[in-house]
Amino acid sequence: MEPRLPPPLLLGVSFVLLCSAGLTRSLTITSSDRSFEKAQGESVTLPCTFVLSDEDGGPLDIEWVLIPADNQKKEEIIIMYAVDRIYNKYYGATTGRMQFTDPDPKSGDGSLDILNLKSADTGTYQCKVKKAPGVQSQKIQLTVLVKPARTKCSVEGSQEIGKDITLKCASQEGSPLLSYMWRRASTTQELPATSVMNRNTGELLLKNASQEYSGTYSCVSANRVGTDECSIELNVTPPINTAGIVAGAIIGTLLGLSVLAFLIFLCCKKHREKKYEKEVHHDIREDVPPPKSRSSTARSYIGSNRSSLGSMSPSNMEGYTKAPYSQVPSEDFERTSGQNPTFAPSKVAAPNLSRMGAVPVMIPAQSKDGSIV
Length: 373
Description:
It contains 5 helices and 18 strands. It is an alpha+beta fold.
């Protein structure tokens, strides 16, 4: 025989079951999506659908808030529906970009539309629905990613046969994690057998390159929300004759040094000529007469003797011709009287001397032994 519960206990269990049935009929959020990833510039709808019960008789309030990553900061109200009105000017960063999906949320759809997504929109959003006595909330994680953009391809290393060549690929914009994929623009799009690709750094190493490696290579940069691509032309050529280039460079350098030395020589020569002309100009003074030559002094002396001879009479020429006038005075003749040499007096007759303005003076005669006669 099965045991039976006493009547008081049976009544208590029945009351609990009735209360549980009432709770299941209260306000309930029916949407289930909890995480979204979108690209910058796109739009997203954060779902928040709900069902009301007959027991929920209070006014309907729907509120969307942004929960900051830092727990020390307060939640920011984005948009709210209360008393049949929408309030959407709480959060300035999203003004004009956020709105309710249904203009009349009391129909059971409190979803939120975010337009023209930005990377700053990344965060945790919470939808709160309240209609007394029922209250429910739901959190949704939104991640806004940036597509790869401005991807550039480049070549590192000499594009010569036998050399190792590295192709590089990098995107200037794009949210991590970015991955890179190189391919060759050919029918098979297969890379050379000696190539080594790093998908994380975007480098493609071509070892011991040959002319068959020449061609167009393209790189695709990708993340979870988009892709971008760039391409580059590779031209593998034979080694350059470096010996000829070095020899030409040396010859050119020597020629240049020779021309430079010649120009310096000309400048120095011109400088010396100018310096010499300047010194000569300072040595010659305009107020100092040029020195007289010996030939001019001699000519002036002979001319004065001839004039004096012409004034003499023939009778007196006999004594005068015996004088040694043929001696030509030297340049010392023009010195001062104290330095002039003593010339032998010429024999001139007394009448001619008086005519010339001379005063006769009587000189006593001397004997050979020096006594006066």
